[in-house]
Design brief:
- The protein is α/β, with parallel strands linked by helices.
- The protein has 17 helices and eleven strands.
- The strands form two sheets. The chain has an eight-stranded parallel beta sheet with strand order 1-9-8-6-5-4-3-2. The chain has a three-stranded antiparallel beta sheet with strand order 7-11-10.
- The N terminus is likely disordered.
- The protein binds flavin mononucleotide.
């Protein structure tokens, strides 16, 4: 695009974290490794390793891959709670932040803060936001249902301003980030307009050179529209993840998901065999079986690029959108 003026998007998030851009990498389990996290940090945002369900060896490797870049680490809280030693393992790497999603963060909050890391809590409802305030979260991430990966029902467009109002009244020092469907500069600008201090980006950075995803899956997802994604549980059943009922996971539909959607009880009864098939398909990068974990924002993504290019363009587009309206971003791109 034509605009190249380096106008910084300064927000409370950039000031508090001393980063150039108000963007956090989503801690995408299995996808956001040390290389992607470091690339995001080196691009002026904050990289967060996707610690996912909490595999200590994998985490050590990814922190090593991140080298000297200041990165954070995220966990799926209900899973980490079953093996809390993995939190200490992550804290030993002196992460910039720990992001907890999908479960009660309160039992872990003081350990995280005493270790000098920021506590980031990702929430899906107003009730979760109350709990995150109780946990004295430094940053609350309001995640809408457009998001790739696990989540719930609320839409980003209404959840973010509702939580912004709540924080303004009850915890004005707590920062707010928006997550779910933010895949270009228009989304970033919109999130700031809704009262967020920054954004968490998953799907757009999943489609990056550095993401730990088989190339076949990345390429398959490039042709998808947001219409092709669905919130479902087939992929959790077949992978053997026992998620609390309130959450499901948005993926790109493929032949395998279509085969089992609505037939979940039958899938459960053959899950042992199907799991082996799914693991093999995953190693082979078979995108007709393994569903790419992406959100509705996939419909805005046209190419796989280095994380630095993605972030640079997103910030420039947001600056244009905020100065001249989002339509100007489209015109600049033509
Ligand atoms: C491939 C993938 C894996 C994810 N894994 C996790 C995870 O392990 N823990 C977590 O807190 N969030 C996870 N998420 C959700 C993100 O934290 C975030 O809410 C979401 O990516 C934001 O929406 P977007 O994908 O539209 O950018 C994942 C998202 C994706 C796309």
């Amino acid at each position: 695009m034509g605009a190249s003026f380096p106008v910084p998007l300064t927000t409370r998030l950039t000031q508090r974290l001393q980063i150039a851009h108000p963007i956090l990498l989503a801690p995408m389990g299995f996808a956001a490794g040390g290389r992607l996290a470091a690339a995001v940090t080196n691009a002026g945002a904050l990289g967060i390793i996707g610690g996912g369900y909490g595999d200590a060896e994998w985490l050590d490797t990814q922190f090593r891959e991140a080298g000297n870049a200041a990165v954070g680490c995220g966990f799926i809280t209900w899973s980490m709670a079953q093996k809390p030693a993995v939190l200490d393992r992550a804290l030993a790497h002196k992460p910039r932040a720990i992001m907890l999603s999908f479960g009660d963060p309160r039992p872990f909050a003081s350990r995280i803060k005493e270790a000098g890391a920021l506590l980031i809590c990702q929430i899906q409802t107003r009730a979760d936001a109350e709990i995150a305030i109780d946990a004295a979260a430094d940053i609350i991430v309001a995640q809408g249902a457009e998001a790739g990966g696990h989540g719930e029902k609320r839409a980003t467009l209404t959840l973010v301003p509702e939580v912004a109002d709540m924080l303004a009244a009850r915890a004005p020092e707590t920062l707010l980030c928006a997550a779910g469907g933010i895949a270009d500069g228009r989304g970033l600008a919109a999130a700031l307009m809704l009262g967020a201090d920054g954004v968490v980006v998953g799907t757009r950075l999943w489609a990056s050179n550095e993401a730990l995803i088989h190339d076949n899956l990345k390429q398959a997802a490039l042709s998808a529209s947001g219409d092709d994604t669905v919130r479902q549980t087939v992929t959790d059943i077949v992978r053997g993840f026992d998620w609390p009922e309130r959450f499901n996971i948005r993926v790109m539909r493929n032949a395998y998901v279509d085969r089992w959607l609505g037939q979940e009880p039958q899938l459960r009864s053959v899950a042992d065999i199907e799991k082996l098939r799914y693991v093999r398909a995953s190693d082979e990068g078979d995108a007709t079986t393994v569903a790419p974990i992406v959100g509705e924002g996939i419909g805005l993504i046209r190419s796989i690029e280095p994380a630095q290019a993605i972030i640079g363009r997103m910030v420039l587009q947001a600056e244009v959108a905020l100065r001249r309206g989002a339509r100007a971003v489209l015109i600049e791109e033509d």
